[in-house]
Design goal:
Elements lengths: L1 H12 L3 H8 L3 H14 L1 H5 L12 E2 L20 H4 L7 E5 L34 E5 L9 H7 L4 E6 L1 H15 L5 E5 L6 E5 L4 E7 L4 E8 L2 E13 L1 H4 L7 E4 L8 E6 L2 E6 L8 E2 L1 H18 L8 E5 L33 H16 L7 E4 L2 H5 L8 H7 L17 H13 L6
Parallel strand pairs: 4-7, 4-10, 9-11, 10-14, 12-13, 14-15
Antiparallel strand pairs: 1-9, 2-3, 5-6, 6-7, 8-9, 11-12
Bound molecules: 2-acetamido-2-deoxy-beta-D-glucopyranose (4 copies).
One 2-acetamido-2-deoxy-beta-D-glucopyranose (NAG) binds next to loops.
Length: 435
């Protein structure tokens, strides 16, 4: 990842998006849009060298969407089954002071922490951000118990599907489990997009599957280089993950960070709209519409998947917001807070929260009443309160030439709590495993 990342970074920096925008169009709104798109969110290109290396082979066609609505208030599905209504809402709560569990990993006891997330190794000195625990309003969230977890998932296959933040989650998950059983790495690609671990004693397999949009999205190229404009096929899910699902027992699906780009939305060979392109004959949508269509496509696929084992349990993880302050990633934005924010300090009108709401709406819409195959892992609220959890300058400076990483999460760090949620959700289904 490091070597190809650097060369990609060089290519990227020598080819500024602003120039491309001047070449492509002349309308002022378009330029502003280009600037917005390029400056705020091209960050993720840096984390994903060579975005063109994965051209999906066999797109998987979805049944047609019934309608496209920008407004979603009218499309909530019927209420959840009773057993869910009785559960504690794990996602509404606050961060309370509590020393980090001594049974959790450190940068010494987990050897697989990626350099870019190993914040202490990279020079982060404050450690107090580890001493906070999520407290749901209506119950306690148990600490992560790797033994219990491995007992529940014995003999199973588990995948984290999504972008580099999904991979971040897998890395944390593997470190947490590694305190009970040492995993064996059985696959890793050169760009660190696909990775597979096996826990031999528990015969448990964990993998990350790279799918930045979840649906098929292809970057347009000019003379062989990508121009940061994407063609999105909202009726085709990305085969890179969809082909794997039939073989899985568990999947954690997430996405969102790649959607802040100029996009043409295709359905059944027609362009039905676009995001950030502002052409007179194409309907202009906002980013959350593209994300909505991607999530809708995911559930549409899963609900209609003939080959899928009916027992595959799908966790939909909601958006984890970045925390740039004082600028964006390439204009000096930073994140050097050392503790959580209270609920009152968070801007709940922010776009990140809106993206989460879109994901929740599509989850409600896509999962049928009584269908036991889905869970939501709604991390957004808790993570919006954790501006202190990112590598920030303690990686950025070394690798990204002064840019801060306020998007991914330090390990150890608050990202470990996502796996506490996974365990809590599994225990609600397997109460007898609780020991
Ligand atoms: C762990 O973090 C310390 C700083 O707290 C650092 O000196 C050390 O190199 C790190 N070790 C590993 C193996 O990453
Ligand atoms: C693409 O390459 C051709 C031939 O080298 C050149 O004439 C053209 O200007 C290039 N287009 C762009 C947009 O760079
Ligand atoms: C929109 O109009 C432009 C200019 O007439 C044309 O080049 C383009 O193909 C049109 N786009 C669609 C989706 O019809
Ligand atoms: C955080 O970084 C900004 C910009 O570098 C700086 O002005 C500020 O003093 C820093 N705050 C802390 C608490 O270190």
């Amino acid at each position: 990842m490091k070597s190809s990342g650097t060369s990609f970074l060089e290519r990227f920096l020598s080819n500024t998006k602003r120039e491309r925008c001047f070449n492509i169009g002349s309308a002022v709104p378009f330029l502003l849009t280009c600037f917005f798109v390029a400056s705020i969110f091209s960050f993720f290109l840096l984390y994903s060298p060579n975005p063109l290396s994965l051209i999906p082979d066999q797109p998987i066609l979805l049944p047609p969407h019934k309608q496209h609505q920008r407004d979603s208030t009218d499309q909530l599905a019927s209420p959840k089954p009773n057993f869910e209504q009785k559960r504690c809402d794990l996602f509404k709560g606050k961060w309370v002071r509590a020393p980090r569990e001594s049974s959790y990993y450190t940068n010494w006891s987990c050897s697989s922490i990626p350099e870019s997330k190993n914040c202490f190794k990279q020079g982060r000195e404050d450690r107090d951000f580890l001493n906070w625990k999520w407290k749901p309003d209506a119950c306690e969230l148990q600490s992560f118990n790797p033994k219990t977890f491995l007992h529940i998932v014995r003999g199973k296959k588990w995948a984290f599907i999504g972008d580099s933040v999904a991979r971040n989650h897998m890395d944390s998950f593997v470190c947490l489990l590694s305190q009970e059983e040492t995993p064996v790495e059985i696959y890793k690609d050169s760009e660190d997009r696909y990775r597979k671990w096996h826990f031999p004693k528990s015969d448990f397999t964990v993998m990350s599957i790279w799918s930045r949009f979840l649906i098929v999205g292809e970057e347009r190229t000019v003379n062989g280089s990508g121009i940061n404009i994407f063609d999105m096929y909202i009726d085709k899910v990305d085969p890179d993950w969809a082909n794997v699902v039939p073989d899985l027992d568990y999947a954690v699906i997430s996405g969102g960070h790649w959607f802040f780009r100029a996009m043409y939305l295709h359905e059944a060979d027609n362009v039905i709209g676009c995001v950030f392109c502002q052409q007179p004959n194409v309907t202009d949508y906002s980013i959350d519409f593209a994300l909505r269509m991607a999530f809708r496509g995911v559930f549409n696929f899963l609900n209609n998947c003939q080959n899928c084992k009916k027992k595959t349990l799908v966790f939909a993880r909601t958006f984890a917001s970045a925390h740039f302050e004082g600028g964006v990633w390439n204009t000096g934005g930073y994140c050097n807070k050392t503790g959580p924010m209270s609920e009152a300090e968070v801007d709940w009108t922010s776009f990140e929260w809106k993206l989460r709401n879109v994901q929740m709406e599509e989850y409600e819409r896509g999962t049928r009443q009584g269908d036991n195959r889905y869970e939501v892992v709604d991390v957004t609220r808790a993570m919006m309160m954790r501006p202190d959890g990112h590598p920030g300058e303690h990686w950025g400076n070394k690798w990204m030439r002064g840019y801060n990483d306020c998007t991914h999460w330090c390990m150890p760090g608050p990202v470990d709590f996502w796996s506490e949620l996974l365990l809590a959700l599994l225990l609600q289904r397997h109460p007898s495993s609780d020991s």
